[in-house]
Amino acid sequence: MEEVIDLSIQREYLNLSESIDFNNVDYREVLKESKNLFSAITPAETKKRLLILLAHFGTAESYRILEKYLKISEQNLKEWALLSLKECRMFLESALLGVDGTVISSGLGGKGNKLRYYFIVSSKGNLPFSETQRDTLRIEFTAKAQKYNSEIEEIAFEPNYAMIRTLISMDIAVGDVIEEGIKECNKMDEFLYFHYYVTNIKKPTKEEISKYLGEIGKREKVQ
């Protein structure tokens, strides 16, 4: 999935889906009830159940209903609508192609066959990056991403660390890109810690980054 969908919503969606006995659900009745998706007075919980039921049937008819609803869905159900549409398409394509399908999703989404990650690299001794060091970081990480059929989307510099948003091919271990990038940066001037922070759940907050940097500092003092 390319869209960014909160993991708590993904878990809620899966939990509700697992609680439904689809063998005892009448497809025609669900289609009749689907009109309730477009009513402002229908409770959100009822809409969530309808979205999952329509997705599971995976027909062209249910797909069109979900596609129509996504365009007008309420803000609090927008991510539910996206999940149901993706799942419906998976079931529909599986039926047409005669093969099992899979939806791969993370909190930060992705693009094509790439998953999105944020990772943080920091300067040794908590020193501010020089312009040369910033240029080196940009060049080396961009080169490593290209080597592994991946992309650097954004590099945000703070005085003593860089937060990098990247798309990593699903065929590649994200650590390979980061660790090789750090090694290349450190060849001429060893200015980066080899430790790094990486996540594909959500964009790190300033509090999380501060805690991480503090842990690195404590670790280095011990060593």
Walk me through this protein's architecture:
The protein has eight helices and five strands. Helix 2 (27-33) packs across helix 3, helix 3 (44-57) packs antiparallel against helix 4 and helix 4 packs antiparallel against helix 5. It has two domains: 7-97, no CATH class; 110-222, Alpha-Beta Plaits, CATH 3.30.70. 51% of the residues lie in helices and 17% in strands. It is an alpha+beta fold and 223 residues long. Strands 1, 2, 3, 4 and 5 form a five-stranded antiparallel β-sheet that branches. The chain has helices at 7-19, 27-33, 44-57, 60-72, 78-97, 131-147, 174-185, 206-222, and strands at residues 110-111, 114-123, 151-158, 161-169, 192-199.
Quick recap:
The protein is α+β, with helices and mostly antiparallel strands and 223 residues long. It has eight helices and five strands. Helices cover 51% and strands 17% of the residues.
Write the layout of secondary structure elements.
Layout: H1 7-19, H2 27-33, H3 44-57, H4 60-72, H5 78-97, E1 110-111, E2 114-123, H6 131-147, E3 151-158, E4 161-169, H7 174-185, E5 192-199, H8 206-222
Q: Write down the CATH topology of the largest domain.
A: Alpha-Beta Plaits
Q: Class by helix and strand content?
A: alpha+beta
pLDDT < 50 stretches: none
Shape label: elongated
- Report the count of strand segments: 5
Percentage of β-strand residues: 15-25%
What oligomeric arrangement do these chains adopt? single chain
How would a crystallographer describe the biggest sheet? 5 strands, antiparallel
For the record, give the distance between the C-alpha atoms at the N and C termini, rounded to a whole number: 42 Å
Structurally, how many domains make up the residues? 2
CATH superfamily heading of the largest domain: Transposase IS200-like
Report helical residue fraction.
40-55%
CATH architectural type of the largest domain: 2-Layer Sandwich
| Average pLDDT figure | 87
Q: SSE string, helix = H, strand = E? A: HHHHHEEHEEHEH
Top CATH class of the largest domain: Alpha Beta
Number of helices: 8
